[in-house]
Amino acid sequence: MSKEVTPVMDTHSYAHPDQAVVRHLSLDLTADFTAKKIFGTATYDITVQPGADSIILDSRDLEIQKVMVDDAETPFTLGTSSEWLGQPLSIPVKTGSKKIAITYSTRPGAEALQWLEPSQTAGKKLPYLFTQGQAILTRTWIPIQDSPGIRMTYDAKISVPKELMAVMSASNPQSKNEDGVYTFKMAQPIPAYLIALAIGDLEFKSLGKRTGVYTEPSMMDKASSELTDTEKMVEAAEALYGPYQWERYDLIVLPPSFPFGGMENPRLTFATPTILAGDKSLVALIAHELAHSWSGNLVTNATWNDFWLNEGFTVYFELRIMEALYGKSYTAMLASLGYQSLKATVADLTPRETHLFLDLAGKNPDDGMTDIAYEKGAHFLLMLEEKAGRETFDAFLKSYFKDHEFQSMTTTTFLEYLDENLIKPNKLDVNVDEWVYGPGLPANCPVASSERFTSVDVQADNFIKGQPAPSLNINGWTTQEWLHFIQALPDSLSAAQMKDLDTAFGFTKSGNSEIQAAWYKLAINQGYGKQIVPSIRQFLVEVGRRKFLTPLYTAMLENGMKEEAQSIYKEARPNYHSVAYNTMDKLFSEAKD
């Protein structure tokens, strides 16, 4: 299935796939919730090139106990540790070596793993565990060649406490069994960052012929009713860019400490409960994670410098799915919000950080996960669509996914393909290098226009000029219109105006995570934050999504609420995944007097 491609050397991996590479992984692991460790054996099918004498895997904070090469115990070497990369695990092999097996254990602080106490779950009775591998954290729970340019198939046997259920980014059970042992198979080759595991008090509900949702029982009704359009999304995506290649598309709604909105683990999207707004207004996130089944999972960035090839394509694809289901008017609002976010990001970053092609050598690849990859990448594709015409551009993208399925992709290779298959045949005049290798936003960056937002601007202007909040014409506004309204308000509102807004519209207690986050940021910037500290505290303690944490803590630190921020973070940090608390630790460290 996977076509042979020339391996790319990845600055964020110790692996040398040109010498020896993993083709298949078999896991036999046990989850110990008391010790907060995963332990067992990982067995690998490998290919060794003539003359190679070792295979190198990535390992970070793992306890390596024994290594076997073709059934013979073999000495191994753990190299010098690096802050982000961990240690190279070097195992001697020969040209004819076929298998290696590693007996190992994780440590309690493994950064990919979040062990939750019962009190941190919805049910409050049983513990929970989930993994987050992107970008280079899979090496903290599996010794592996942890590069997005290296693909492998895998199977697994996972033993868990009998009252819990395990699911993975693979074929999954749909009910608990009696012995607590679950088996899995991923027949399509994937990179290491997409190997994922969740263990908890889970149940499953079907959403369609090949879609369904897992979550804790107490959350199932809310989750399943919010996600009823999932099957329609899959159908819309296939109509755009070709068959869905992963058999099933299921979701798991995790506890709120999950650090991202969603993670596109194949066959099983991991999703934050903050998307459950009660009105389907935040399900664009599901369209985004589904789109990754083509852009990211099917065709994958070869290194994290090429991250925009995953995310820029996916934001564009997400907009197309949403347009197919909910219309152009709705999608114009999403695109407009994306453009606003992109402009703000460009203003906050250095010029070099606004290039699509990144330079992350010596850095945590997490640093590249900004709106540049997502929104500038998407706007580059929107520009190409404008130049080529939608029909021509759709045909190009469909061929791109087909021609490179189950392969990795570098920026250079993509641009060559773009030139040969879209630009030259259609005689397009496009400033590709300026977009990809240049800073900021080129002059031909598309700007979304939303008539619905124009109406919102009128109401915002009326309020700024003194019209009381209860008399504003807000009938039928969606989450997106409310977000635009909040973002359109200036930093010069009075305390009385802020109170008027809050009393009329209930922003502080809205229950819609996106609206709450936008409102809290405005309130903090306006000096109104001190009046609603309990609500801000509750939000930041309960929600671990980094997208919300970073701007809110930043606003507090910059607007006279440093003591409140420190107090809240001290309480909240134990609830956060390492992806979130590492970012917050840095934020607070840099804010010291």
Question: What is the structure about, briefly put?
Answer:
With 593 residues, this protein is an alpha+beta fold.
Main beta sheet, described?
Answer: 7 strands, mixed
Average pLDDT metric: 96
Q: Please, what is the oligomeric state?
A: single chain
Radius of gyration using CA atoms only? 24 Å
N- to C-terminal distance: 56 Å
Q: Give the CATH level 1 class of the largest domain.
A: Mainly Beta
Domain tally? 4
Q: Which fold name corresponds to the CATH topology of the largest domain?
A: Immunoglobulin-like
Strand order of the largest sheet: 5-4-8-2-1-11-13
User: Into which percentage range does the β-strand content fall?
Assistant: 15-25%
Spans of at least 5 consecutive residues with low confidence: none
Number of helices: 17
What form results from the Cα inertia axes? globular
Coarse structural class? alpha+beta
Please identify, by name, the CATH architecture of the largest domain.
Answer: Sandwich
CATH superfamily of the largest domain, by name, is tricorn interacting facor f3 domain
